[in-house]
User: Fold this.
Amino acid sequence: MHPSCTRPTMPEVTVGAFRRQAGLFATGVCVVTVQHEHRIFGMTANAFTSVSLAPLLVLVAFSDQAHTLTVLEESGQFAINLLSREQENVSRHFAGSARSLPEIHFEPFSGGPRLVGSLAAIGCAVDQMVTAGDHRLVIGRVIALSEPPAEGERPLVFWRGAYWRLPAGAVGPAPALEGEQIFFD
Ligand SMILES: Cc1cc2nc3c(=O)[nH]c(=O)nc-3n(C[C@H](O)[C@H](O)[C@H](O)COP(=O)(O)OP(=O)(O)OC[C@H]3O[C@@H](n4cnc5c(N)ncnc54)[C@H](O)[C@@H]3O)c2cc1C
Assistant:
């Protein structure tokens, strides 16, 4: 093989290398809330995705060590609170690593409590739970949607193991797609 054609060495498949590679996929951040016997539990998660349109299903991957998962198994319901760009410390708090105590308020919602200040909330009833390695995949049937966020509100973004904020004004659709929203089947 010509020297200029040599491929870069592929990294060894280790937990660390995998986490770094998977962390290149930019996500939003949510707090999953559960209410059980008058107590509220919350956990920061980015392993959240929509799954199906008929029926409407979403998925959250929980570590099998998560306290919130234990409570969720009891309650059978939860809410996904999509965090706004202002809520980095809220994310840190519900991941157990806040630098200072953020103000946290909940209001009643379907499935689980709504975290005040979040971009939007999705209420869910547990449809299935599947064990996958050291995680439990919780599939939820969507039972409620909060009102859409105000124009100009932005999500909190997680990428490469760090929080990122979309700038308030400068961001917009890619020029070629201006004005067009993309929905695919
Ligand atoms: C960006 C990011 C994404 C993550 N994604 C995932 C993921 O997809 N899946 C996953 O399993 N883990 C994920 N984690 C890790 C997870 O958030 C932490 O391991 C978390 O601590 C596990 O939560 P727990 O249910 O064990 O709750 P705990 O560790 O018991 O609680 C977490 C924190 O929330 C606080 N808290 C809980 N309920 C309330 C309440 N009612 N009022 C005020 N404070 C409360 C607790 O005081 C504690 O500080 C993520 C972490 C980060 C930073």
